[in-house]
Amino acid sequence: MKRFFIGSLALVGALSLLFVGAVVGLVILGASNKPGVPAEVVLELELSEPLEEYVPEDSLAGAFGDEKLTVRDVVDALEKAGEDARVKALVVKLDGAPGSLAVVQEVRDAVKAFRAKGKKAVVYADTFGEGGGATGAYYLATAFDEIYIQPSGDVSVVGAAVETPFGRDMLAKLGVKPRMGKRYEYKAAVNSYTEQTYTEAHREETERFLTSLFGQVVKGVAEGRELSEEQVKAAIDAAPLLGKEALEAKLVDGLLYRDEVYAKVKEEAGKGAQLLYVEKYLERAGRPNTHGPVVALIYGAGGISRGRSHTNPMSGEVTMGSETVAAAIRKAADDERVKAIVFRVDSPGGSYVASDTVRREVQRAKEKGKPIIVSMGTYAASGGYFVSMDADKIVAQPGTLTGSIGVYSGKLVTADFWEKLGVNWETLAVGKNAAMYSSDLDFTPEQLAKHESSLDRVYEDFTAKAAAGRKMQVEKLREVAKGRVWTGEDAKERGLVDELGGFGVALKLAKEAAKLEGPVKVEMFPRKKGTAEVLAELLGEKKGENSEDEEAGAEVSAPWSPVLKQTQALYQLGVKLGMVEERRQMLSAPVPDTTW
Questions:
Q1: In whole angstroms, what is the distance from residue 25 CA to residue 43 CA?
Q2: Does this model's pTM top 0.85?
Q3: Mean pLDDT over residues 38-55, rounded?
Protein backbone atom coordinates (compact mmCIF):
# COMPACT_ATOMS: atom_id res chain seq x y z
CA MET A 1 0.00 0.00 0.00
CA LYS A 2 2.85 2.36 0.91
CA ARG A 3 4.47 1.69 -2.45
CA PHE A 4 1.13 2.39 -4.17
CA PHE A 5 0.81 5.80 -2.50
CA ILE A 6 4.41 6.71 -3.32
CA GLY A 7 3.88 5.67 -6.92
CA SER A 8 0.65 7.67 -7.13
CA LEU A 9 2.34 10.80 -5.77
CA ALA A 10 5.18 10.36 -8.23
CA LEU A 11 2.68 10.07 -11.09
CA VAL A 12 0.85 13.23 -9.96
CA GLY A 13 4.18 15.06 -9.74
CA ALA A 14 5.23 13.89 -13.19
CA LEU A 15 1.91 14.93 -14.70
CA SER A 16 2.19 18.35 -13.01
CA LEU A 17 5.65 18.85 -14.47
CA LEU A 18 4.40 17.79 -17.90
CA PHE A 19 1.50 20.26 -17.61
CA VAL A 20 3.78 23.15 -16.63
CA GLY A 21 6.22 22.17 -19.38
CA ALA A 22 3.40 22.08 -21.93
CA VAL A 23 2.18 25.53 -20.85
CA VAL A 24 5.68 27.01 -21.12
CA GLY A 25 6.18 25.29 -24.47
CA LEU A 26 2.93 26.67 -25.84
CA VAL A 27 3.83 30.18 -24.67
CA ILE A 28 7.26 29.98 -26.33
CA LEU A 29 5.80 28.46 -29.50
CA GLY A 30 3.11 31.15 -29.64
CA ALA A 31 5.71 33.90 -29.23
CA SER A 32 7.96 32.50 -31.94
CA ASN A 33 5.11 32.18 -34.46
CA LYS A 34 3.47 35.54 -33.83
CA PRO A 35 2.19 36.94 -37.15
CA GLY A 36 2.96 40.46 -38.22
CA VAL A 37 0.80 43.41 -39.29
CA PRO A 38 -0.40 43.25 -42.93
CA ALA A 39 0.80 45.89 -45.37
CA GLU A 40 -2.64 47.52 -45.54
CA VAL A 41 -4.93 47.34 -42.53
CA VAL A 42 -8.37 48.47 -41.46
CA LEU A 43 -8.46 48.34 -37.69
CA GLU A 44 -11.58 46.71 -36.30
CA LEU A 45 -12.98 47.26 -32.82
CA GLU A 46 -16.09 45.69 -31.30
CA LEU A 47 -17.49 47.46 -28.26
CA SER A 48 -20.23 45.39 -26.67
CA GLU A 49 -19.41 45.82 -22.97
CA PRO A 50 -17.63 48.38 -20.76
CA LEU A 51 -13.87 48.64 -21.13
CA GLU A 52 -11.85 47.74 -18.07
CA GLU A 53 -9.88 50.51 -16.41
CA TYR A 54 -7.31 48.13 -14.99
CA VAL A 55 -6.73 44.37 -15.13
CA PRO A 56 -5.04 43.38 -11.84
CA GLU A 57 -1.86 41.38 -11.79
CA ASP A 58 -3.57 38.58 -9.88
CA SER A 59 -5.72 37.73 -12.90
CA LEU A 60 -5.06 34.20 -14.16
CA ALA A 61 -6.79 35.05 -17.44
CA GLY A 62 -4.45 38.00 -17.86
CA ALA A 63 -1.43 35.80 -17.17
CA PHE A 64 -2.42 33.54 -20.05
CA GLY A 65 -2.98 36.47 -22.39
CA ASP A 66 -6.79 36.43 -22.42
CA GLU A 67 -7.15 39.84 -20.87
CA LYS A 68 -10.18 42.06 -21.20
CA LEU A 69 -9.64 45.14 -23.29
CA THR A 70 -8.77 48.20 -21.21
CA VAL A 71 -9.22 51.91 -21.77
CA ARG A 72 -5.47 52.30 -22.13
CA ASP A 73 -5.33 49.47 -24.69
CA VAL A 74 -7.71 51.34 -26.99
CA VAL A 75 -5.99 54.68 -26.45
CA ASP A 76 -2.52 53.23 -27.06
CA ALA A 77 -3.60 51.25 -30.12
CA LEU A 78 -5.13 54.30 -31.79
CA GLU A 79 -2.12 56.45 -30.93
CA LYS A 80 0.22 53.86 -32.45
CA ALA A 81 -2.01 53.39 -35.50
CA GLY A 82 -2.18 57.11 -36.13
CA GLU A 83 1.55 57.08 -36.93
CA ASP A 84 1.49 53.73 -38.78
CA ALA A 85 1.33 54.03 -42.58
CA ARG A 86 0.00 50.48 -42.81
CA VAL A 87 -3.21 51.48 -41.03
CA LYS A 88 -5.67 53.01 -43.47
CA ALA A 89 -8.85 53.31 -41.43
CA LEU A 90 -10.78 52.30 -38.32
CA VAL A 91 -14.20 50.66 -38.22
CA VAL A 92 -16.04 50.16 -34.95
CA LYS A 93 -19.11 48.03 -34.28
CA LEU A 94 -20.85 49.67 -31.36
CA ASP A 95 -23.32 47.72 -29.24
CA GLY A 96 -23.31 50.07 -26.26
CA ALA A 97 -21.31 52.69 -24.41
CA PRO A 98 -17.86 51.39 -23.35
CA GLY A 99 -18.33 52.79 -19.85
CA SER A 100 -18.99 56.01 -17.99
CA LEU A 101 -19.04 59.46 -19.56
CA ALA A 102 -15.36 59.88 -18.65
CA VAL A 103 -14.45 56.60 -20.39
CA VAL A 104 -16.44 57.62 -23.47
CA GLN A 105 -14.61 60.94 -23.51
CA GLU A 106 -11.23 59.17 -23.25
CA VAL A 107 -12.08 57.02 -26.29
CA ARG A 108 -13.57 60.00 -28.16
CA ASP A 109 -10.31 61.90 -27.67
CA ALA A 110 -8.34 58.93 -29.04
CA VAL A 111 -10.59 58.65 -32.11
CA LYS A 112 -10.34 62.37 -32.83
CA ALA A 113 -6.53 62.24 -32.50
CA PHE A 114 -6.48 59.25 -34.90
CA ARG A 115 -8.55 61.22 -37.43
CA ALA A 116 -6.27 64.25 -37.01
CA LYS A 117 -3.49 62.09 -38.51
CA GLY A 118 -5.46 61.85 -41.75
CA LYS A 119 -7.02 58.45 -40.98
CA LYS A 120 -10.71 57.72 -41.53
CA ALA A 121 -12.91 56.40 -38.71
CA VAL A 122 -16.34 54.86 -39.29
CA VAL A 123 -18.79 53.55 -36.70
CA TYR A 124 -21.65 51.10 -37.21
CA ALA A 125 -24.47 50.08 -34.87
CA ASP A 126 -27.42 47.88 -35.72
CA THR A 127 -29.37 50.30 -33.52
CA PHE A 128 -28.74 52.94 -30.89
CA GLY A 129 -31.07 51.62 -28.24
CA GLU A 130 -33.88 49.11 -28.57
CA GLY A 131 -36.32 49.61 -25.75
CA GLY A 132 -33.74 51.68 -23.84
CA GLY A 133 -31.57 54.76 -24.00
CA ALA A 134 -28.28 54.87 -25.91
CA THR A 135 -27.12 58.42 -25.31
CA GLY A 136 -23.65 57.31 -24.22
CA ALA A 137 -23.09 55.07 -27.23
CA TYR A 138 -24.28 57.75 -29.64
CA TYR A 139 -22.13 60.41 -27.94
CA LEU A 140 -19.11 58.21 -28.65
CA ALA A 141 -20.21 57.68 -32.24
CA THR A 142 -20.19 61.42 -32.97
CA ALA A 143 -16.39 61.44 -32.72
CA PHE A 144 -16.23 59.44 -35.99
CA ASP A 145 -16.26 60.63 -39.60
CA GLU A 146 -19.36 58.61 -40.47
CA ILE A 147 -22.18 56.94 -38.49
CA TYR A 148 -24.32 54.13 -39.89
CA ILE A 149 -27.20 52.11 -38.49
CA GLN A 150 -29.13 49.32 -40.19
CA PRO A 151 -32.48 50.28 -41.79
CA SER A 152 -34.50 48.77 -38.94
CA GLY A 153 -32.48 50.57 -36.27
CA ASP A 154 -33.41 53.50 -34.04
CA VAL A 155 -31.55 56.38 -32.44
CA SER A 156 -32.66 56.53 -28.82
CA VAL A 157 -30.68 59.54 -27.60
CA VAL A 158 -32.99 60.49 -24.76
CA GLY A 159 -30.67 62.29 -22.32
CA ALA A 160 -29.43 61.32 -18.86
CA ALA A 161 -31.19 60.37 -15.65
CA VAL A 162 -30.21 59.30 -12.14
CA GLU A 163 -32.14 56.79 -10.05
CA THR A 164 -31.49 56.84 -6.30
CA PRO A 165 -33.09 54.35 -3.90
CA PHE A 166 -34.16 55.58 -0.45
CA GLY A 167 -34.92 52.92 2.14
CA ARG A 168 -35.44 54.68 5.47
CA ASP A 169 -39.05 53.50 5.82
CA MET A 170 -38.20 49.97 4.72
CA LEU A 171 -35.44 49.77 7.32
CA ALA A 172 -37.85 51.06 9.96
CA LYS A 173 -40.34 48.31 9.09
CA LEU A 174 -37.58 45.74 9.36
CA GLY A 175 -36.49 47.10 12.72
CA VAL A 176 -33.16 48.48 11.49
CA LYS A 177 -32.05 51.86 12.85
CA PRO A 178 -29.45 53.83 10.86
CA ARG A 179 -26.98 55.62 13.12
CA MET A 180 -25.00 57.56 10.54
CA GLY A 181 -23.10 60.82 10.67
CA LYS A 182 -21.64 62.85 7.81
CA ARG A 183 -19.70 66.00 7.01
CA TYR A 184 -21.46 67.84 5.49
CA GLU A 185 -24.86 68.23 3.86
CA TYR A 186 -23.75 67.12 0.36
CA LYS A 187 -22.19 63.84 1.58
CA ALA A 188 -25.03 61.74 0.22
CA ALA A 189 -23.59 58.27 0.79
CA VAL A 190 -25.77 57.72 3.87
CA ASN A 191 -28.99 59.24 2.49
CA SER A 192 -30.25 55.94 1.11
CA TYR A 193 -30.42 54.72 4.71
CA THR A 194 -31.47 57.89 6.53
CA GLU A 195 -33.88 59.57 4.08
CA GLN A 196 -36.97 58.71 2.06
CA THR A 197 -36.38 61.27 -0.68
CA TYR A 198 -33.76 63.78 -1.81
CA THR A 199 -32.69 66.41 0.69
CA GLU A 200 -32.38 69.92 -0.72
CA ALA A 201 -28.57 69.66 -0.87
CA HIS A 202 -28.62 66.16 -2.37
CA ARG A 203 -31.09 67.26 -5.06
CA GLU A 204 -29.07 70.38 -5.87
CA GLU A 205 -25.85 68.38 -6.14
CA THR A 206 -27.36 65.67 -8.34
CA GLU A 207 -29.21 68.04 -10.63
CA ARG A 208 -26.07 70.11 -11.18
CA PHE A 209 -24.07 66.94 -11.88
CA LEU A 210 -26.66 65.79 -14.45
CA THR A 211 -26.89 69.24 -16.05
CA SER A 212 -23.12 69.36 -16.49
CA LEU A 213 -23.04 65.88 -18.05
CA PHE A 214 -25.94 66.72 -20.36
CA GLY A 215 -24.28 69.93 -21.48
CA GLN A 216 -21.08 68.07 -22.34
CA VAL A 217 -22.98 65.53 -24.42
CA VAL A 218 -24.96 68.19 -26.30
CA LYS A 219 -21.81 70.17 -27.06
CA GLY A 220 -19.92 67.08 -28.24
CA VAL A 221 -22.76 65.86 -30.47
CA ALA A 222 -23.22 69.34 -31.95
CA GLU A 223 -19.53 69.62 -32.80
CA GLY A 224 -19.30 66.09 -34.16
CA ARG A 225 -22.37 66.34 -36.37
CA GLU A 226 -21.94 70.02 -37.30
CA LEU A 227 -25.30 70.96 -35.81
CA SER A 228 -26.31 73.72 -33.44
CA GLU A 229 -26.83 72.86 -29.79
CA GLU A 230 -30.48 73.84 -30.18
CA GLN A 231 -30.88 71.29 -32.99
CA VAL A 232 -29.28 68.60 -30.83
CA LYS A 233 -31.52 69.36 -27.85
CA ALA A 234 -34.57 69.27 -30.12
CA ALA A 235 -33.52 65.87 -31.48
CA ILE A 236 -33.02 64.55 -27.95
CA ASP A 237 -36.45 65.74 -26.90
CA ALA A 238 -37.96 64.08 -29.99
CA ALA A 239 -36.16 60.76 -29.45
CA PRO A 240 -36.45 57.82 -29.78
CA LEU A 241 -36.16 58.41 -33.52
CA LEU A 242 -36.72 55.87 -36.26
CA GLY A 243 -33.84 55.35 -38.68
CA LYS A 244 -35.34 57.58 -41.38
CA GLU A 245 -36.05 60.32 -38.86
CA ALA A 246 -32.46 60.14 -37.55
CA LEU A 247 -31.16 60.39 -41.13
CA GLU A 248 -33.33 63.44 -41.81
CA ALA A 249 -32.11 65.04 -38.57
CA LYS A 250 -28.50 64.45 -39.73
CA LEU A 251 -27.76 62.27 -36.72
CA VAL A 252 -26.56 59.42 -38.97
CA ASP A 253 -24.99 59.28 -42.43
CA GLY A 254 -26.81 56.28 -43.83
CA LEU A 255 -29.00 53.25 -43.22
CA LEU A 256 -26.84 50.26 -44.11
CA TYR A 257 -26.31 46.73 -42.87
CA ARG A 258 -23.04 45.61 -41.35
CA ASP A 259 -21.79 43.86 -44.50
CA GLU A 260 -22.46 46.98 -46.57
CA VAL A 261 -20.61 49.23 -44.12
CA TYR A 262 -17.57 46.98 -43.85
CA ALA A 263 -17.39 46.46 -47.61
CA LYS A 264 -17.54 50.23 -48.12
CA VAL A 265 -14.75 50.88 -45.59
CA LYS A 266 -12.47 48.20 -47.07
CA GLU A 267 -13.05 49.43 -50.61
CA GLU A 268 -12.16 53.01 -49.67
CA ALA A 269 -9.08 51.82 -47.76
CA GLY A 270 -7.64 49.99 -50.78
CA LYS A 271 -8.03 46.74 -52.66
CA GLY A 272 -5.66 44.75 -50.46
CA ALA A 273 -6.75 46.12 -47.10
CA GLN A 274 -7.38 43.49 -44.42
CA LEU A 275 -9.38 43.74 -41.22
CA LEU A 276 -7.44 43.36 -37.96
CA TYR A 277 -8.81 43.61 -34.42
CA VAL A 278 -7.42 46.49 -32.39
CA GLU A 279 -6.21 44.14 -29.66
CA LYS A 280 -4.37 41.98 -32.24
CA TYR A 281 -2.81 45.07 -33.76
CA LEU A 282 -1.61 46.25 -30.35
CA GLU A 283 -0.14 42.82 -29.63
CA ARG A 284 1.76 42.76 -32.92
CA ALA A 285 2.71 46.40 -33.43
CA GLY A 286 3.43 47.14 -29.77
CA ARG A 287 2.48 50.13 -27.69
CA PRO A 288 3.64 53.69 -28.27
CA ASN A 289 6.04 55.36 -25.83
CA THR A 290 8.55 52.50 -25.54
CA HIS A 291 11.86 54.36 -25.88
CA GLY A 292 13.52 57.16 -23.98
CA PRO A 293 13.55 58.37 -20.38
CA VAL A 294 11.13 56.42 -18.17
CA VAL A 295 7.78 57.77 -17.02
CA ALA A 296 6.23 55.41 -14.47
CA LEU A 297 2.53 54.54 -14.81
CA ILE A 298 0.84 53.48 -11.56
CA TYR A 299 -2.80 52.49 -11.20
CA GLY A 300 -4.95 53.20 -8.17
CA ALA A 301 -8.21 51.49 -9.12
CA GLY A 302 -11.20 50.43 -7.04
CA GLY A 303 -12.33 50.99 -3.48
CA ILE A 304 -9.47 51.90 -1.15
CA SER A 305 -8.57 49.57 1.71
CA ARG A 306 -5.63 48.86 3.98
CA GLY A 307 -3.36 46.02 2.93
CA ARG A 308 -2.66 44.69 -0.51
CA SER A 309 -4.68 45.13 -3.69
CA HIS A 310 -6.90 42.25 -4.66
CA THR A 311 -9.89 41.23 -6.74
CA ASN A 312 -13.14 40.06 -5.16
CA PRO A 313 -13.97 36.73 -6.86
CA MET A 314 -17.64 37.14 -5.92
CA SER A 315 -18.16 40.52 -7.59
CA GLY A 316 -15.10 40.89 -9.83
CA GLU A 317 -14.43 44.29 -8.26
CA VAL A 318 -10.87 45.50 -7.86
CA THR A 319 -9.66 46.89 -4.54
CA MET A 320 -6.90 49.48 -4.28
CA GLY A 321 -4.73 48.23 -1.45
CA SER A 322 -2.70 50.97 0.24
CA GLU A 323 0.35 48.71 0.68
CA THR A 324 0.44 47.78 -3.00
CA VAL A 325 0.03 51.29 -4.37
CA ALA A 326 2.32 52.88 -1.77
CA ALA A 327 5.04 50.31 -2.57
CA ALA A 328 4.69 51.01 -6.30
CA ILE A 329 5.05 54.77 -5.77
CA ARG A 330 8.08 54.22 -3.50
CA LYS A 331 9.68 51.95 -6.07
CA ALA A 332 9.17 54.46 -8.86
CA ALA A 333 10.40 57.37 -6.71
CA ASP A 334 13.59 55.47 -5.83
CA ASP A 335 14.29 54.31 -9.39
CA GLU A 336 16.92 56.55 -10.99
CA ARG A 337 15.59 55.73 -14.45
CA VAL A 338 12.17 57.17 -13.61
CA LYS A 339 11.93 60.89 -14.36
CA ALA A 340 8.22 61.40 -13.63
CA ILE A 341 5.14 59.47 -12.50
CA VAL A 342 1.63 59.31 -13.94
CA PHE A 343 -0.78 58.10 -11.25
CA ARG A 344 -4.04 56.87 -12.81
CA VAL A 345 -6.80 57.09 -10.19
CA ASP A 346 -10.20 55.49 -10.67
CA SER A 347 -11.79 55.16 -7.25
CA PRO A 348 -14.94 56.10 -5.31
CA GLY A 349 -12.89 56.13 -2.10
CA GLY A 350 -12.88 53.95 0.98
CA SER A 351 -10.67 53.82 4.05
CA TYR A 352 -9.45 57.12 5.50
CA VAL A 353 -6.25 55.62 6.90
CA ALA A 354 -5.46 53.74 3.67
CA SER A 355 -6.07 56.89 1.61
CA ASP A 356 -3.67 58.83 3.81
CA THR A 357 -1.03 56.10 3.41
CA VAL A 358 -1.11 56.52 -0.37
CA ARG A 359 -1.27 60.33 -0.16
CA ARG A 360 1.89 60.31 1.97
CA GLU A 361 3.81 58.40 -0.71
CA VAL A 362 2.64 60.88 -3.35
CA GLN A 363 3.97 63.66 -1.14
CA ARG A 364 7.30 61.83 -0.59
CA ALA A 365 7.75 61.26 -4.33
CA LYS A 366 7.47 65.01 -4.89
CA GLU A 367 9.97 65.66 -2.09
CA LYS A 368 12.42 63.33 -3.87
CA GLY A 369 12.15 65.45 -7.00
CA LYS A 370 9.89 63.13 -8.98
CA PRO A 371 7.01 65.04 -10.58
CA ILE A 372 3.74 63.14 -10.15
CA ILE A 373 0.68 63.81 -12.32
CA VAL A 374 -2.71 62.34 -11.50
CA SER A 375 -4.94 61.21 -14.36
CA MET A 376 -8.51 60.62 -13.20
CA GLY A 377 -10.77 58.02 -14.80
CA THR A 378 -14.47 57.49 -14.17
CA TYR A 379 -14.23 58.89 -10.67
CA ALA A 380 -11.78 60.18 -8.11
CA ALA A 381 -14.18 60.88 -5.28
CA SER A 382 -13.69 61.17 -1.52
CA GLY A 383 -10.74 58.87 -0.78
CA GLY A 384 -10.06 58.84 -4.52
CA TYR A 385 -9.56 62.60 -4.35
CA PHE A 386 -7.63 62.27 -1.08
CA VAL A 387 -4.90 60.16 -2.76
CA SER A 388 -4.75 62.65 -5.66
CA MET A 389 -4.72 66.06 -4.01
CA ASP A 390 -0.96 66.27 -3.30
CA ALA A 391 0.07 65.62 -6.91
CA ASP A 392 1.87 68.32 -8.90
CA LYS A 393 -1.04 68.42 -11.35
CA ILE A 394 -4.47 66.78 -11.56
CA VAL A 395 -6.03 65.91 -14.91
CA ALA A 396 -9.68 64.82 -15.24
CA GLN A 397 -12.08 64.22 -18.06
CA PRO A 398 -14.98 66.74 -18.16
CA GLY A 399 -17.28 63.92 -17.06
CA THR A 400 -15.10 62.52 -14.25
CA LEU A 401 -16.95 62.37 -10.92
CA THR A 402 -14.62 64.46 -8.77
CA GLY A 403 -14.35 65.73 -5.21
CA SER A 404 -16.77 64.64 -2.49
CA ILE A 405 -14.38 66.12 0.05
CA GLY A 406 -16.15 64.93 3.14
CA VAL A 407 -16.61 62.01 5.49
CA TYR A 408 -19.30 59.69 6.79
CA SER A 409 -19.41 56.84 9.24
CA GLY A 410 -21.82 54.98 11.45
CA LYS A 411 -23.64 51.72 11.80
CA LEU A 412 -27.00 50.02 11.36
CA VAL A 413 -28.53 48.90 14.65
CA THR A 414 -30.26 45.58 13.93
CA ALA A 415 -31.39 44.39 17.38
CA ASP A 416 -35.12 44.95 16.66
CA PHE A 417 -34.79 43.16 13.33
CA TRP A 418 -33.38 40.03 14.97
CA GLU A 419 -36.07 40.20 17.63
CA LYS A 420 -38.72 40.07 14.88
CA LEU A 421 -37.06 36.87 13.65
CA GLY A 422 -36.97 35.39 17.13
CA VAL A 423 -33.20 35.71 17.44
CA ASN A 424 -31.69 37.17 20.59
CA TRP A 425 -28.11 38.38 20.44
CA GLU A 426 -26.44 38.77 23.83
CA THR A 427 -23.36 40.98 24.01
CA LEU A 428 -20.75 40.56 26.72
CA ALA A 429 -18.00 43.15 26.77
CA VAL A 430 -15.11 44.19 28.99
CA GLY A 431 -14.33 47.87 28.57
CA LYS A 432 -16.72 50.80 28.55
CA ASN A 433 -16.70 51.19 24.75
CA ALA A 434 -15.82 47.63 23.71
CA ALA A 435 -19.20 47.21 21.99
CA MET A 436 -19.35 50.75 20.61
CA TYR A 437 -19.59 49.58 16.99
CA SER A 438 -21.71 46.53 17.67
CA SER A 439 -24.79 46.41 15.45
CA ASP A 440 -26.84 45.06 18.37
CA LEU A 441 -26.51 48.12 20.57
CA ASP A 442 -27.24 51.79 19.98
CA PHE A 443 -24.64 54.45 20.76
CA THR A 444 -24.64 55.80 24.28
CA PRO A 445 -24.59 59.63 24.49
CA GLU A 446 -20.86 59.51 25.27
CA GLN A 447 -20.17 57.16 22.36
CA LEU A 448 -22.20 59.31 19.98
CA ALA A 449 -20.14 62.33 21.04
CA LYS A 450 -16.92 60.41 20.34
CA HIS A 451 -18.28 59.34 16.96
CA GLU A 452 -19.19 62.91 15.98
CA SER A 453 -15.79 64.15 17.19
CA SER A 454 -14.11 61.58 14.95
CA LEU A 455 -16.04 62.87 11.93
CA ASP A 456 -14.99 66.44 12.74
CA ARG A 457 -11.34 65.41 13.03
CA VAL A 458 -11.33 63.57 9.69
CA TYR A 459 -13.12 66.41 7.89
CA GLU A 460 -10.75 69.03 9.28
CA ASP A 461 -7.74 66.89 8.32
CA PHE A 462 -9.09 66.19 4.83
CA THR A 463 -9.87 69.81 4.04
CA ALA A 464 -6.62 71.12 5.53
CA LYS A 465 -4.51 68.68 3.51
CA ALA A 466 -6.58 69.31 0.37
CA ALA A 467 -6.08 73.07 0.76
CA ALA A 468 -2.33 72.60 1.20
CA GLY A 469 -2.10 70.24 -1.77
CA ARG A 470 -4.10 72.54 -4.01
CA LYS A 471 -2.41 75.69 -2.65
CA MET A 472 -5.72 77.23 -1.62
CA GLN A 473 -6.95 78.95 1.50
CA VAL A 474 -8.73 76.45 3.76
CA GLU A 475 -11.84 78.63 3.86
CA LYS A 476 -12.02 78.71 0.07
CA LEU A 477 -11.47 74.95 -0.15
CA ARG A 478 -14.23 74.28 2.35
CA GLU A 479 -16.67 76.29 0.23
CA VAL A 480 -16.42 73.61 -2.49
CA ALA A 481 -16.06 70.68 -0.09
CA LYS A 482 -18.95 69.73 2.25
CA GLY A 483 -18.97 66.26 0.69
CA ARG A 484 -20.13 67.56 -2.70
CA VAL A 485 -19.36 65.73 -5.95
CA TRP A 486 -18.57 67.70 -9.09
CA THR A 487 -17.98 66.82 -12.71
CA GLY A 488 -14.38 67.31 -13.82
CA GLU A 489 -15.55 70.33 -15.81
CA ASP A 490 -17.04 71.99 -12.72
CA ALA A 491 -14.14 70.87 -10.53
CA LYS A 492 -11.65 72.64 -12.81
CA GLU A 493 -13.58 75.91 -12.48
CA ARG A 494 -13.30 75.57 -8.68
CA GLY A 495 -9.59 74.80 -8.54
CA LEU A 496 -9.88 71.10 -7.69
CA VAL A 497 -8.52 70.05 -11.09
CA ASP A 498 -5.78 71.61 -13.25
CA GLU A 499 -6.47 70.33 -16.76
CA LEU A 500 -9.17 68.46 -18.65
CA GLY A 501 -8.25 65.37 -20.65
CA GLY A 502 -6.95 61.85 -20.30
CA PHE A 503 -3.76 59.80 -20.57
CA GLY A 504 -2.28 61.99 -23.29
CA VAL A 505 -2.67 65.23 -21.36
CA ALA A 506 -1.28 63.66 -18.19
CA LEU A 507 1.77 62.32 -20.03
CA LYS A 508 2.37 65.72 -21.66
CA LEU A 509 2.28 67.42 -18.25
CA ALA A 510 4.61 64.79 -16.80
CA LYS A 511 7.15 65.43 -19.56
CA GLU A 512 6.89 69.18 -19.05
CA ALA A 513 7.33 68.86 -15.29
CA ALA A 514 10.41 66.66 -15.73
CA LYS A 515 11.74 68.88 -18.55
CA LEU A 516 11.77 65.97 -21.00
CA GLU A 517 11.78 66.47 -24.76
CA GLY A 518 11.22 63.85 -27.40
CA PRO A 519 9.95 60.29 -26.88
CA VAL A 520 9.64 58.64 -23.48
CA LYS A 521 9.17 55.11 -22.23
CA VAL A 522 5.98 54.52 -20.22
CA GLU A 523 6.64 51.70 -17.76
CA MET A 524 4.10 50.08 -15.44
CA PHE A 525 4.86 49.94 -11.70
CA PRO A 526 4.65 47.32 -10.33
CA ARG A 527 5.55 45.38 -13.46
CA LYS A 528 3.03 42.94 -14.89
CA LYS A 529 3.57 39.39 -13.68
CA GLY A 530 4.03 36.54 -16.13
CA THR A 531 2.19 33.23 -16.23
CA ALA A 532 4.83 31.34 -14.23
CA GLU A 533 4.84 33.91 -11.41
CA VAL A 534 1.06 33.94 -11.06
CA LEU A 535 0.96 30.14 -11.03
CA ALA A 536 3.76 30.01 -8.45
CA GLU A 537 1.90 32.40 -6.18
CA LEU A 538 -1.31 30.41 -6.57
CA LEU A 539 0.66 27.43 -5.28
CA GLY A 540 1.76 29.45 -2.26
CA GLU A 541 5.25 30.63 -3.18
CA LYS A 542 6.40 33.66 -1.16
CA LYS A 543 6.84 36.81 -3.22
CA GLY A 544 9.03 39.83 -2.65
CA GLU A 545 12.25 40.24 -0.71
CA ASN A 546 10.98 42.78 1.83
CA SER A 547 8.29 45.38 2.48
CA GLU A 548 10.10 47.92 0.28
CA ASP A 549 9.98 45.55 -2.68
CA GLU A 550 7.40 46.17 -5.39
CA GLU A 551 6.79 42.45 -5.36
CA ALA A 552 4.88 42.92 -2.12
CA GLY A 553 2.16 43.78 -4.57
CA ALA A 554 -1.29 42.46 -5.25
CA GLU A 555 -2.52 39.57 -3.20
CA VAL A 556 -2.94 36.44 -5.29
CA SER A 557 -5.25 33.70 -4.07
CA ALA A 558 -6.13 30.31 -5.46
CA PRO A 559 -9.45 30.79 -7.24
CA TRP A 560 -11.20 28.14 -5.21
CA SER A 561 -10.19 29.28 -1.72
CA PRO A 562 -11.82 32.75 -1.68
CA VAL A 563 -14.98 31.34 -3.22
CA LEU A 564 -15.19 28.87 -0.37
CA LYS A 565 -14.52 31.50 2.28
CA GLN A 566 -16.83 34.17 0.91
CA THR A 567 -19.79 31.90 0.35
CA GLN A 568 -19.74 30.71 3.94
CA ALA A 569 -22.92 31.58 5.83
CA LEU A 570 -24.38 33.39 2.78
CA TYR A 571 -21.52 35.83 2.83
CA GLN A 572 -21.85 36.18 6.61
CA LEU A 573 -25.56 36.88 6.16
CA GLY A 574 -24.86 40.03 4.21
CA VAL A 575 -22.21 40.76 6.84
CA LYS A 576 -24.92 40.88 9.44
CA LEU A 577 -27.21 43.13 7.39
CA GLY A 578 -24.42 45.64 6.86
CA MET A 579 -25.18 45.70 3.14
CA VAL A 580 -22.28 43.29 2.53
CA GLU A 581 -19.74 45.86 3.70
CA GLU A 582 -16.99 44.18 5.69
CA ARG A 583 -14.92 47.27 6.42
CA ARG A 584 -16.12 50.57 7.75
CA GLN A 585 -15.61 53.20 5.07
CA MET A 586 -15.27 56.87 5.90
CA LEU A 587 -14.05 58.48 2.68
CA SER A 588 -16.42 57.06 0.12
CA ALA A 589 -18.91 58.45 -2.39
CA PRO A 590 -21.69 56.53 -4.13
CA VAL A 591 -21.56 56.69 -7.90
CA PRO A 592 -24.87 58.06 -9.24
CA ASP A 593 -26.77 55.31 -11.06
CA THR A 594 -26.89 57.25 -14.30
CA THR A 595 -28.86 55.92 -17.26
CA TRP A 596 -27.92 57.58 -20.52
A1: 30
A2: yes
A3: 94
